[in-house]
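# step 3/5: fold
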Amino acid sequence: MIYYIYMRVLLSSKDRVNLFEVLKERGIDLRQVAEISSVSIRTVTDWKRGKYTIPKDHFDRIINLIGISPGSIKVSSLDNWWNNSKSGKLGAAARMEKHGQLSTPEGRSLGGKNSYKNRKNKLDIFTKKEITEPRQNEQFAELVGILIGDGSVTRYQVSIATSSLVDYKYSLFTAELIEKLFGIKPTVSKRKGMNCITIVASSVNLVEFLKQNGVLQGHKLRQNLNIPAWILSDRSYEIACLRGIFDTDGCIFQETHKIKGKTYSYSRLSFVSMSSYLRETIHEILSELEFTPKIRNNRSVNLENPADIAAYFRIVGTSNPKHASRFQAFGGVG
């Protein structure tokens, strides 16, 4: 399911207070919440005060970060008309009926008592959930390839950004792969005003597990981005990782030249990366698979022989429908 950014959630005052209390107990400050939500600290402060409702995709990232189920907190989903006058009055009336007049000492006292009672009796719903830790296998190796290509790993979350125009089906595949491997459901959202889909899994445990398995946190190029050693120790893992890298950072295209008034077109399959270490490793793996790769312009590794391109789709394959369609469009020979 895709949550678009205009969807928002309305929390009761006690659930809102409880949420930020648990964040504090977990050692997660407002700056860190702002970082995983890609907003300012002032915005997070306004969420905490209840001045503004929280966009649903940001809310999902926050509760995933502290490891609780979305169903553990009662929320009201609001459309982009959530702030009209009538809705505001109805919401205020409902809150007053449940929690009293919050602007009075009696109302504040009631809200505080309810918040304490809720934390005391229901703190178990905020118990941090462990991720499933998969064994090193082909599916995990393919996800590592995806992260090498289009992934970003911070202290608290893993995100993958891809095109909403041509990679929609592939984004769903990636989200399902993460859920299957780690037992957590990532948030898939379309960035407003941009042709971009972001898959986000917020989990400190996930970040730590990926780091233990050779996935880089932070700026990848500054850390000499390359394929982890455990993948390079197994041919089937290498092939799966190649598939993930190409499906995110690769392309298949027709290169056209005009010679003496005649037009010549040649098929090309290209792995694109700014990391010289990664380019050299990809070149080595492709060579070991008996392809004839070429490094071009210090930015890509190409397969330029039609037989190589056809063999690539037979041996390595693709999980991205975009590439399969383009391969077929070029006559099935690259």
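# step 4/5: annotate
Residues 8-126 form a domain with the 434 Repressor (Amino-terminal Domain) fold (CATH 1.10.260.40).
# step 5/5: archive (pending)
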